[in-house]
Amino acid sequence: MSVFSFAQIQKTDFRVRIHQITEKGRQAYLEKNKDTLKKIAQELFQIYAVNKDSSVLANHYFQKAMYYHVSYKSDSAFYYYNESKNIYRVLNDSLAVGRRLLTMAVLQKQAKDYLGGEISLIDALRYLEPIESYTFLKSVYNHLGDISDELNQRVEAIQYYQKAIEVNQKVNEDSKRERGYLFIQNNLGLLYQRNNEHKKAINYFNKGLNYKSINVKEKYPLIYALLLENLAASNFLLGNKEEVLSQYLEVLKIREKNKEFKDICMTYINIADYYKDRKEFRKSRAFLDKALQYSKQTHNNKYWLTALKDLSELSSGEESKKYFQEYIQLSDSLLQKERSLKNQFAKIRYETDKKEQENQVLKTENDKKQEEITRQKQQKIIGWLLAVVSFLGLGFTVTLFVFRRRKLLYQAQLQKAQAREQERKQIAKALHDEVAGDLRLLHQKLEKSQLFDEASKLDAVKENVRNLSHQLSSVSFKKVTFKDQIINLVTDYFEPDFKIIVKGLNEHDWSMVNSAVKRLLYICIRESIQNSKRHAQATKVTVTFSIHKKNVLLNITDNGVGFDTTVRKKGIGLHNLQERVEELQGTFSIQSTVGAGTETHIQIPLNV
């Protein structure tokens, strides 16, 4: 046997071994076996330490991410999924990159970071569509439908679900295609259920339960339980309650058998609601106690809150007060945790983008250095040849070299200056996202405690901090693109009772638009959102971008209280905006009616 053949066998054995370890990790993840996942991650790192194979390191990060995922530590899981994704991106493994982005989006969706999740899913499409990975493309469109539904974008949600169905039909493996279809039908049913259109919802749940000639109950018991429970819930809300209890109990039996304790919380809540409706409060409380127990055990925050709230309503005296106080404390804690996770996810995305840009800069600099080395060699050869003819030729070459060296040193100084500017932006971001956010939460608690004077003073401090952060922060589109700047801006202001919808942002190549124009658009959007939130008492703001001929058009509408434009003059903020727009040869106009909201129109030439 040749040395080459022996090396090939060793390489094959190595890949088989890594594949076996990976499959073992996947099974441990499905079984939520943290100890096995931890050991597998350590084993992979030891292998990497010996052979320095980047794919092994990526797999190590992936196993570590799954360990934190089953440990309910979403921030650490997101970080290691991202690290794994970054290595696979360098290795040009599109499938692995797309899968990591899909998993990251699921974590973002669970943390209610819907905009961040949408960005990750759209990024996943870029990697999965060219390789026609229909199994995961179906999941991407399905989750995009979920996020659109959460953002009350019903039309978009239905379109994404229909796209998921279309892609799912191209999945080759029967079981994956069948499971995909069942999940999509369930999600479509939930969309109509949330909108109290229960007859339509029931139609979709029945489509799943009666899919073709498949015995869904035997083949996919957990999906069957999901569809059956949602069917029972819609029938219950319609008043068709004859079979509801038996269906809930059937679901309960399936989930207990399969140890699906996270989902079992929902079943206990539903059974409790059934008995509460029949005024059998003792039975209702018994199931709520079980729901509370399992929701705490599995960190199922949604049903943990629901169980506490319902128990406080079914109890009395000190016991009711205890449940309610626990509900308030958990709600506040989850709100802070969600905000912290959003910031952490955004920071990880930012650091990733920053590293990629730094790597690109280093690559460019390395290419320049290599080019310079080659050029120097050529210059030396030419110099020696020309030395015979003229000493001046050598002097000219040396002068040219010195000039270029000075130019490189000058560029290095520019990069240092940019680094200092980035530090100022980081301080501004910390003031805006962390200090101002904490002050806002404290302000709300003071108001709830009726400490209005203190709340008013704290509000003034919050505004000063916010203004200072904006003064420190200079909007830059070199390191953070215009699209990401707008997404970050919307994320800063987005709240459950203050929704911001952005249209047309993905339809244009903003890198071709002058930075001065982009900076002005950003400032206009920020000022308009602040006015809608502070003064107009709006709950929804829609920002629409379009490019027509040689102009950028920006249209901003809200559903606030509006004002009489014939009586009320523009404030200093709007007046300054108008001056900025007109300086760039643009037009600025506002239309508003009392009780009917406000609409702002801005048109700016592309070439300033």
Tags for this model:
Heat Shock Protein 90; disordered N terminus; globular; 608 residues; five-stranded mixed β-sheet; mainly alpha
Topology:
Elements: H1 3-30, H2 34-51, H3 54-70, H4 74-90, H5 94-110, H6 114-128, H7 134-150, H8 154-168, H9 174-194, H10 198-209, H11 216-219, H12 221-238, H13 244-257, H14 261-277, H15 281-298, H16 301-314, H17 317-389, H18 391-448, H19 452-472, H20 482-493, E1 499-503, H21 515-534, E2 540-548, E3 551-558, H22 572-583, E4 587-592, E5 598-605
Parallel strand pairs: 1-2
Antiparallel strand pairs: 2-3, 3-5, 4-5
Helix pairs in contact: 1-2, 1-3, 2-3, 3-4, 4-5, 4-17, 5-6, 5-7, 6-7, 7-8, 7-9, 8-9, 9-10, 9-12, 10-12, 12-13, 13-14, 14-15, 15-16, 16-17, 17-18, 18-19, 20-21, 21-22
Short description, anyone?
The chain is mainly α and 608 residues long. The chain contains 22 helices and five strands. It has a domain at 480-608: 2-Layer Sandwich (Heat Shock Protein 90).
Textual characterization of the structure:
With 608 residues, the protein is mainly α. The chain has a domain at 480-608: Histidine kinase-like ATPase, C-terminal domain (Heat Shock Protein 90), CATH 3.30.565. Helices cover 75% and strands 6% of the residues. It has helices at 3-30, 34-51, 54-70, 74-90, 94-110, 114-128, 134-150, 154-168, 174-194, 198-209, 216-219, 221-238, 244-257, 261-277, 281-298, 301-314, 317-389, 391-448, 452-472, 482-493, 515-534, 572-583; strands spanning 499-503, 540-548, 551-558, 587-592, 598-605. It has a five-stranded mixed beta sheet, covered by helices on one side. Strand 1 (499-503), helix 21 (515-534) and strand 2 form a beta-alpha-beta unit. The longest helix has 73 residues, at 317-389. The protein is globular. The N and C termini lie far apart (71 Å).
